[in-house]
Amino acid sequence: VMLYLALVSRYSQIGIDEGMLLSLLGLQSDTKLELEEALGSSPARLILRQGRQCKLLHPLIAEEVLRELLGGHEGAGWEDGLRDLAVDFINDTVRILGNDALETNRLFVQLFILRDVWYERQVRGRPRFSEFIQAIPSVAGQHLVLQLLTEMCPQEAHYWNHLGRHHFYEMRQDFGQAERYLEKAVELSPDDSYHHHSLGMVRRIWIEDRLGDLFKAETAPTPDGLLGDVAGLFRTAAESFAKTRELNPDDEHGYITHTQ
Question: How would you classify residue 30: left for phi > 0, otherwise alpha for psi between -120 and 50, otherwise beta?
Fold first, then answer.
C-alpha cells in the first residue's frame, strides 16, 4: 500500500481511492478506513486524505519511500524496481477496479500517458513520454509497461498510441509493428487528430530510416530508385497529416511535419 501511494504521489497529481486501498488491505468495501490501525502510526502520518482520495504529503517524501522500499537502506538502484512496481500496480488496479472503469483510466493516464513533469528541478522541453515511464532505467522495461497497458486495457486508444510512439522513438526497430500500433489507436479513436499525426510521424521516420539504409549501400541509389522505394510510405504519411489538418486545422503540427 505504501509503495502504491508513493508511486502515485511522486508521479501524478492525484491520489488513490479509499475503496481500492481497502481492497488492497483485504478489508470489506463498507469498512471505515483507519490508517493508523491498518498501516501503523508512523506510516499513517505521511498520508494526506482529501475526501476519499489518499496520497503522501509531498513528492519528495514519496520519492524517499520508493527509495527505502525498493532500494533497501542504502537506496542504491531503487529505480530498477519501478518496472516491476508498475506491473504489479497495473495488475492490481485492473483486478480491483476493472479495465474499463473511469478510476482505472484516471490513474493510468496520470502515471503512464500525461507528459507533464510533476516534480523535477531542471527540465528542458516537453518530454516524449510520461515522467514515470522515463524514470524506468531500461528502454525494454519502459516498453514492457506500455505493452501491458494495451493488453490489460485494449480499448484505450492513447495506450496504443504511446506504445507505438515508444516503439519507433526508443526501440528504433520494426517500424511496421509501430505502424500497426498507431493504426489501432486510429481505429479506436478515428476523430482524434493526435493519433493521425502520430501515425504520420511513424511513417515519416520510417522514410528517413529507409533513405539512410539506401545511402549506406555500396552502390548509390538512383533518383528514381530512391523516390520509388519510399513513394508508398510518403503517400500514406501525407494522408495522415492531411487528416490531422482536417480534424484540427488550428494545430500547426499537421502542417509543419508534412512540410518537413
Answer: alpha
Cell numbers for 122, please give them. 531542471
Q: Report the alpha-carbon angle 104-109-114, nearest 5.
A: 170
32-49: b (≥16 Cβ within 10 Å) or e: ebebeebbeeebeebbee
**pTM higher than 0.85:** yes
Do 2 and 39 form a contact (C-beta atoms < 8 A)?
yes
pLDDT at residue number 221:
83
Average pLDDT value for residue range 106-130? 78
Torsion (CA) 130, 147, 205, 11 in degrees, nearest 10: 0
Q: What percent of the chain has pLDDT over 90?
A: 75
**Sequence-ordered strand ranges (E) for the chain:** 16-17, 47-50, 53-56
Across the chain, what does the average pLDDT equal? 91
Contacts of 191 (CB under 8 A, 6+ apart): 247
Most distant CA pair in the chain, distance:
75
